[in-house]
Specification:
The protein is 40% helix and 20% strand.
Length: 467
């Protein structure tokens, strides 16, 4: 194919986006993620057409997710043939996303995304590629903004799918799906169609095929443009917050730790932004980190007391000790031998196998209260016999707080997206008849205190042994 072919005048959003942000430098090697669908095929065609003008070279990357059986294999064959027709080198990798989904307890979309980006970044490193081009378009960006609003997001969620994010560049970010379909038709580009894109079992597909058409018809025909404007405003505001956080970080950090008192004096919005950045630095991402998680840390910070708060997926902690605040990752054991021991009340009970200490005390006339994930208050009258700590056993059941009846502990782990490595090391607090608390994960309705409770047992999990 002719690498100097010109883009049609009414489809030049791709070139404008490349130059606007800008996405490439002369001499760059761009790794182009190609699935075989219309977006990635149009992007590849455009980048190939512009490679001379931009002075860039291309390398195709294709991941066979193994999700759609023969269809996935046909996609792989098509992309390999496409690479040959363009005379562009290609790297292909196969992955078992369904198995990874089960192992990490993730949804299929999230598991596929993690595997895809790991493959792209690893391939870019091996090839010394300067940029990774992916095919997100303007509609994808608008849908992500709407999805994040529905989930309950902050400013960063509104800034979803940025044109440039590190090595990742998105040449189609200002091009709509209709424009891409027209581009594909004009250039007679055959494409593979992913049947899962029409499956409304996926939330994103319901937003695309059901919610957005309703919003366009009944509320705002220009809803896509409105969401895109909101995303760009959020990007600009996020840049301001990042600059403010960087400036503040230089003033509040010493010897790698954060000065808790200085941090607490900052505006709440800036504190939250700094905390999220610090958590992302240690954890690697912000997946499953909720507004409530950040707010718990913020409340602890404002109270001025020492604390340790456990964050998802279970091995991330925020600790305040004196005037020092730090986010850290515990080295959790992969497996613990079965154990059972009596809990000292009052007193401290080391659980060496799990690397925790249970600190117990009595509370007179306890009242229902919001507690941190690493603490529980149990009505003493609800305890049958001896209070014990033990490892998880097959068939364990619990009556989760706020629920009538019981549930398999394994199902609770799945519902709460507890990783397998955390499940294997979970500590159960129980009496002679029932589970009252799975440390840091779920408390039982059967042990909760009420306004009628005369005495309670307060248990906290001390994580010092994990440091």
């Amino acid at each position: 194919m002719d690498s100097e072919e010109q883009l049609p005048q009414d489809n030049d959003n791709i070139l404008r986006a490349i130059e606007r942000y800008p996405m490439f430098c002369a001499g760059d090697l761009a790794l182009v993620a190609v699935s075989g669908g219309p977006d990635s095929v149009a992007m590849l065609h455009a980048l190939h057409s512009l490679s001379g003008k931009l002075d860039i070279s291309l390398h195709i990357a294709h991941l066979n997710h193994g999700i759609r059986g023969d269809e996935s294999n046909y996609d792989e064959d098509y992309v390999c043939n496409l690479a040959h027709s363009y005379n562009i080198p290609i790297t292909v990798e196969r992955a078992d996303v369904p198995a990874i989904k089960a192992d990490l307890n993730l949804g299929e979309e999230e598991a596929a995304r993690l595997v895809r980006y790991k493959f792209l970044h690893n391939t870019a490193t091996e090839l010394n590629a300067h940029k990774i081009a992916v095919g997100h378009n303007a509609n994808d960006r608008a849908e992500s903004v709407l999805l994040n609003i529905i989930r309950g997001c902050g400013l960063e969620g509104l800034a979803s799918i940025k044109p440039i994010n590190g090595k990742i560049v998105r040449p189609l970010i200002d091009t709509t799906r209709d424009e891409i379909e027209r581009y594909v038709a004009i250039h007679a580009l055959p494409c593979r169609i992913d049947s899962t894109n029409f499956d409304t079992a996926y939330t994103r597909n319901r937003i695309r095929h059901e919610l957005i058409p309703i919003l366009q018809r009944d509320y705002n025909p220009q809803i896509i443009n409105a969401l895109l404007r909101l995303a760009q405003i959020a990007v600009d505001q996020t840049d301001v917050m990042n600059a403010a956080a960087k400036s503040a970080d230089n003033a509040i950090r010493y010897d790698g730790d954060i000065d808790a008192a200085l941090l607490a004096d900052l505006p709440d919005g800036l504190i939250s932004h700094i905390l999220r950045g610090e958590i992302e630095r240690i954890k690697g991402d912000l997946i499953d980190i909720s507004f409530e998680n950040i707010n718990n840390v913020l409340e602890g910070l404002k109270n001025g007391c020492d604390f340790t708060i456990n964050l998802p997926p279970g091995d991330i902690y925020v600790t305040r000790a004196g005037n020092s605040l730090k986010v850290w990752q515990a080295q959790m054991p992969v497996h613990i031998e079965p154990f059972e021991c009596a809990i000292a009340i009052p007193g401290k009970t080391p659980i060496a196998a799990a690397g925790v200490v249970l600190d117990c005390s009595f509370i007179e006339n306890p009242k229902p209260a919001k507690l941190q994930p690493n603490e529980v208050i149990i009505d003493i009258d609800a305890v049958a016999g001896e209070l014990k700590a033990r490892s998880v056993r097959p068939g364990d059941r619990i009556s989760p707080m706020g629920m009538t009846g019981s549930k398999k502990l394994q199902d609770v782990f799945v519902d709460k997206k507890i990783p397998r490595r955390r499940r294997a090391t979970a500590v159960v607090v129980c009496d002679d008849e029932k589970i009252l608390w799975v440390v840091g994960i779920v408390a039982s309705e059967l042990g909760k205190v009420s306004v009628q409770s005369r005495k309670g047992i307060r248990i906290t999990s001390d994580l010092d042994l994990l440091k």
